[in-house]
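Possible regression after last week's pipeline update?

I re-ran a chain I had predicted before the update to compare outputs. Posting the input and the new output here so someone can diff against the archived version. Not blocking, just want to make sure nothing changed silently.
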Amino acid sequence: MAAPRLEIDLDKIGHNARTLVERLGTRGISVTGVTKATLGSAEVAATLLQAGVNGLGDSRIENIEAMRIGQPSAPMTLIRSPMLSQVQRVVRCADVSCNTEIEVIRRLSTEAQQADCTHGVVLMVELGDLREGIMPDDLLDCVRETLNLPNIDFKGIGTNLACRSGVAPDARNMAMLTELAEQIETTFDLRMETISGGNSANLQWALSGAEIGRINDLRLGEAILLGCETLHRQPLDGLYTDAITLIAEVIEAKVKPTLPTGQIAQNAFGEIPTVADRGQVTQAILAIGRQDTDPCGLQAPAGIDIMGASSDHLIVESNGDNLSVGTEVAFQLNYSALVRSMTSPFVTRNMKPA
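New output (post-update):
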């Protein structure tokens, strides 16, 4: 079988999704299954829908277009604010989009009129993480104009935390989102369909028994795919953390010194390595590198230590393991390593059916 490759166990992904759907369901929260880390995989999308997610979410319209072929009627949300250059594609393939700029929503309205359809809009609110979001003081004005635009269906509001600045979802900022939702509903005499509290970082809060207020949706990707919460990357009880593994092949195995010979300057990535002299070690090189994954996001099996990487080579040391040429090594991945591996054209994907 080709290497490097991602081994993707759809049964384990389905289990993780179904477990989270059930646990959050008891709290009145539905799950939007986020597919962006899998490049909108048709197989993963089908698995999530079978597990009971309320719909699919992706940050790239290209992925939504690909998924739409196999899932013509599944609810799909573009979870990144649309580019003006792509609004026509967004209206055609996404049922809903998350938005922060009224200029974009106006263009969505125009395109929806031309397509004779209605496009749903969720307004994203800035609650401290300083990535995307309308400032709370500007929210009512944005809602007012959105409600007045033809062929636009105002679905509700949402927020995003713990992505740029690491701000954790907690009772304070989640209560603020609830307050904003109630303020909107009172001001405009309406009932919103969606109050999306955030992503996998919200699980610790959502499952703690805390008051959830009006939050009724979470957008989950990493927790489903990797089985962990994302504030501290701790495994979630009852979930698989090995649903996806990265397999790489050894292309060199030799005993080498640990101390480089010669004058040290910058390496290929502008770094100046600092290396201690530990004598001779058993070193192996695997045919994968920074062009294919995030080496810092890989966890090697016991007895193998990752020592460094260049564009196309991953250097490891083994403590007695026989890493002969042709041997395959399986690595666990964090989110960064997974996303980069999925986007590399040199890493194949092997789906294990559910």
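Follow-up from reviewer: compared with the archived run. The chain has a mean pLDDT of 96. Marking as no regression found.
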